[in-house]
Amino acid sequence: MKQKRFILSEEEIPRYWYNIMAEMPNKPMPLLNPATREELKAEDLYPLFAKELCHQELNTTDPWIEIPEEVRDLYKYYRSTPLVRAYGLEQRLRTPAHIYFKNESVSPMGSHKLNSAIPQAYYCKKEGITNVTTETGAGQWGASLAYAARLFGLEAAVYQVKISYEQKPYRRSIMQTFGAQVTPSPSMSTRAGRKILTEHPNHQGSLGTAISEAVELARTTPNCKYTLGSVLNHVSLHQTIIGQEAMKQMEMAGEYPDMVIACFGGGSNFGGISFPFMRENILNGKKTRFIAAEPSSCPKLTHGKFEYDFGDEAGYTPLLPMFTLGHNFTPANIHAGGLRYHGAGMIVSQLMKDGLMEAVDIQQLESFEAGCLFAQAEGIIPAPESCHAIAATIREANRCKETGEEKVILFNLSGHGLIDMASYDKYLAGDLQNYTFNDTSV
Amino acid sequence: MKQKRFILSEEEIPRYWYNIMAEMPNKPMPLLNPATREELKAEDLYPLFAKELCHQELNTTDPWIEIPEEVRDLYKYYRSTPLVRAYGLEQRLRTPAHIYFKNESVSPMGSHKLNSAIPQAYYCKKEGITNVTTETGAGQWGASLAYAARLFGLEAAVYQVKISYEQKPYRRSIMQTFGAQVTPSPSMSTRAGRKILTEHPNHQGSLGTAISEAVELARTTPNCKYTLGSVLNHVSLHQTIIGQEAMKQMEMAGEYPDMVIACFGGGSNFGGISFPFMRENILNGKKTRFIAAEPSSCPKLTHGKFEYDFGDEAGYTPLLPMFTLGHNFTPANIHAGGLRYHGAGMIVSQLMKDGLMEAVDIQQLESFEAGCLFAQAEGIIPAPESCHAIAATIREANRCKETGEEKVILFNLSGHGLIDMASYDKYLAGDLQNYTFNDTSV
């Protein structure tokens, strides 16, 4: 019998995160102070984030950053996640391609988000912080942060994008089970929320707005820091544990990926699985293709502009050099709530600009069709976000079928969709539709 | 750092199921034909189940039954499941006990049920069956059978207990995503359902009634067999993969359990984790205690009678020798839908009668309190069923705290509760209550 799943022993779990900023051909352009347009230093970020995270955010020199022992100890609760050969999917597609996926859905919170929630909560705790705030789209990040906060005895306040709060009530319940305070965003509890609600009383929320609310709460609460689940450099850094594990596991399988594919919201699961393999392209002449799969309704990489923009709707954050649809952009209410963000992280934006990676956009119906096929073939119901990576994988596998090439495709199954079944219900009932980025929800 | 999770390689996954009937001191009494009260032979069961399953059901001679290669190949999709040392829970309880759990919740359907759904669908397919029926309580079994049926190209029809159909709509969606037909039970589609609904128009359903409906559909549909998710001997047989893996994994951890604990509905997850360890008690003088944790609202082992009874409400099944509350018993609408069954499997009933195991009953509020504590300590939200095992574990761990004994406790985390968040919501809001078996839902 052929081996299906590849798992590392606890000793083989990586001890360092990989910081691609130290090795990429062109570093990301600097963060700017919006008022002065001066380059920001780590100290300028201290009011917002734990200090150690501020330094990680701007570290462009050290390729390897040690994972604290306390964090590694908690990673062991669910890592390594399995690398799985998708024999079932290959068979369904009748493709000569070898398809592998990294199954981050087995994390107790159901997605890769915990990989960064644990160190973020850890560094806050270590610096004597007592409260953390954040936003959440689909609820995956919020649930992970709520749990991580609980582990370190921190109080967590989460702004959940209103449309997700309503589409995915179970995610709210999970956060509450871990003791977090959950508020649908936009809310009347912040200046940013009140402004939006006054202008658009039926606003369904966006990640950009929820970030503004969480940042505002952090700024106005003593001993409180803000945390973010994607976009930022230090978040992608923490997620590189995915790609490092996958590299060792592909070695166990005796293969190396021709393509690495991940869905794309702010870039952390994409960067997490890609960057360690991209290092091999940059330093060792490998020729792997890296493909970000974004929703057609929110396609910053394929249809956005590379420019300085805010990370949030209200303009509270520094200016970030990124591919963006504009910080006021409110995408259509697709069910992949985690991908409804207007911009791409700085690292990925630079890599995209430099041609080191590609992007495709996927329509909502194609994504759910791919998700159902995968579910029936592999038994795992994927998160609507991850369905985008699966759809992009299926496109490539079908190309291999046409050409007869036995390419090796690795994609990241960033999370499961068990809490998104209401979305699958709607898809199966024919009640979902496609959107472009001209269809916004306001 | 201390090792937290123990995982077997694919080669170490057991190749045989363990059939305790061949080695227990007193075999279970025979199945009887209700009309003649004559002992049933395998052939008498052919109309209901795949033939191979009928033979497994009555096999009291072979202790080891080979797992077909096709089934082992599919087990590899998620097995081995991790054995986990619950350091987080131990710390919270400040107990000297060493607590381990076998994490069956990582199965793609979220519970141990897939372990038997795969072989049941396999044997049906092998015999040329095209359709399968079943009932489901919480929906865990129905989801697993729906997926297994899909894997082998069988059509599946599932009767879901009405109260669960309403409490857990996502489980219905999962079954439908795999292409199964799902009907809330009691329904007007069967004679058994119509009779109940005529007498009790607001009947909320029970496993006993749903079984009657599924059996009736199987009997009246060409080339269709019935399948069951617990109670029967062959189901417990398939689940022994859990205990066999756990035994190897406990060896990796360098410990041996003083107690093995599992929640109890019909007995398959309990038998699955217990029987391989019980073998060591029977044959090799080990002194492990085996504790079944049942709900106070449906306590067949602690408050039922040992007698011949039907497995279903309408009396379609053979007579089974078992601890029962009566086949017409309809338990209160607790949220652990998988434990709302009136009887205990034949093997477990005999073992209970012979003093080889124990049982405790757990109130609904104690079960959810335990579940929340476990979630905060270990990051996994347990199924309401599994919460009963956790509550029993906590009772024993607290006893160790009083006596200072470093006992080793192993419990089975039979499933996760991500789809049961509405139940947690109610618990957190103070809207749940306790029930005894005098509180029935009709």
Please, could you describe this protein's structure?
The first copy, chain A, has 17 helices and 15 strands. With 442 residues, chain A is α/β, with parallel strands linked by helices. Chain A has a domain at 74-110 and 233-441: Rossmann fold (3-Layer(aba) Sandwich), CATH 3.40.50.1100. In chain A, the strands form four sheets. In chain A, strands 1-4-5-15-10-11-14 form a seven-stranded mixed β-sheet, sandwiched between helices. In chain A, helix 6 (140-151) links the parallel strand 6 and strand 7. In chain A, helix 6 packs parallel to helix 8 and helix 11 (233-253) crosses helix 12 (268-284). Chain A is globular and about 60 Å long. The first copy, chain A, starts with a strand and ends in a 14-residue tail after the last helix. The model of chain A has no long low-confidence stretch (mean pLDDT 95). Chains A and B meet through helix 3, helix 6, helix 8, helix 15 and helix 17 of A and helix 3, helix 6, helix 8, helix 15 and helix 17 of B.
Beginning-to-end CA distance, first to last residue of chain A: 54 Å
| Oligomeric state, counting identical vs distinct chains | homodimer
Principal-axis shape of chain A equals globular
Unreliable residue stretches of chain A: none
CATH architecture of the domain at 74-110 and 233-441 in chain A: 3-Layer(aba) Sandwich
Largest sheet of chain A: 7 strands, mixed
